[in-house]
Amino acid sequence: MDCLFCKIVAGEIPSKKLYEDDQVLAFYDVDPQAPVHFLVIPKEHIACASEITPENSQIIAHIFEVIANLVSTLKLADGYRIVNNCGVQGGQSVPHLHFHVLGGRDMSWPPG
Ligand code: AMP
């Protein structure tokens, strides 16, 4: 499949890995928008949040457990933001489900 993040999972494209297990991969964003900016993705190809189903939704709980552990390790005790962009109007540029985790600075609201 011609998917950038599937290629990262397969090791065909290098990434700066933070965490990996049999289900998920976390790696630093190549174009960071905050002092800490990493992505957590399922290894299974799920195109976007609209494709979460009763059959695959367990991975979402696991991703949020991984995020909780990583923000603790990275000492983002003052807070952080989790972002999922879905679809063209949602600003998604890579069609493989991913959660951005941003921290290390104050976040504004509403997002752009
Ligand atoms: P989105 O726009 O929500 O689909 O987010 C895609 C993110 O992937 C962007 O923040 C990009 O900077 C990031 N990105 C694109 N290519 C790579 C790569 N090779 N390694 C790490 N992050 C990437």
What structural keywords apply?
binds adenosine monophosphate, Histidine_triad_HIT, alpha+beta, about 20% strand, about 110 residues, 5-stranded antiparallel sheet
Q: Report on the biggest sheet.
A: 5 strands, antiparallel
Provide a count of the helices: 2
Radius of gyration: 14 Å
Number of strands: 5
Q: Name the ligand types.
A: adenosine monophosphate
Enumerate the spans where pLDDT stays under 50 for 5 or more consecutive residues. none
The chain-level mean pLDDT equals 97
Query: Termini separation (Å)?
Result: 31 Å
Oligomer: single chain
Strand order of the biggest β-sheet = 1-2-3-5-4
Helix content: 10-25%
The string of secondary-structure elements, in order, is HEEEHEE
Question: What structural class results from the helix and strand content?
Answer: alpha+beta
Q: Please tell me what the overall shape is.
A: globular
**Beta strand %:** 15-25%
Protein name: Histidine triad nucleotide-binding protein
InterPro entries: Histidine_triad_CS, Histidine_triad_HIT, HIT-like, HIT-like_sf
Motif (Histidine triad motif): 96-100
Organism: Clostridium facile
Concise structural overview:
The protein has 112 residues and is an alpha+beta fold. The protein is 21% helix and 22% strand. It has a 5-stranded antiparallel sheet, with helices on one face.
Structural account:
- There is one protein chain.
- Helix content is 21%, strand content 22%.
- By secondary structure, it is an alpha+beta fold.
- The chain has a five-stranded antiparallel β-sheet with strand order 1-2-3-5-4, covered by helices on one side.
- β1 and β2 (24-28) form a beta hairpin.
- The chain is globular and about 35 Å long.
- The protein starts with a helix and ends in a 9-residue tail after the last strand.
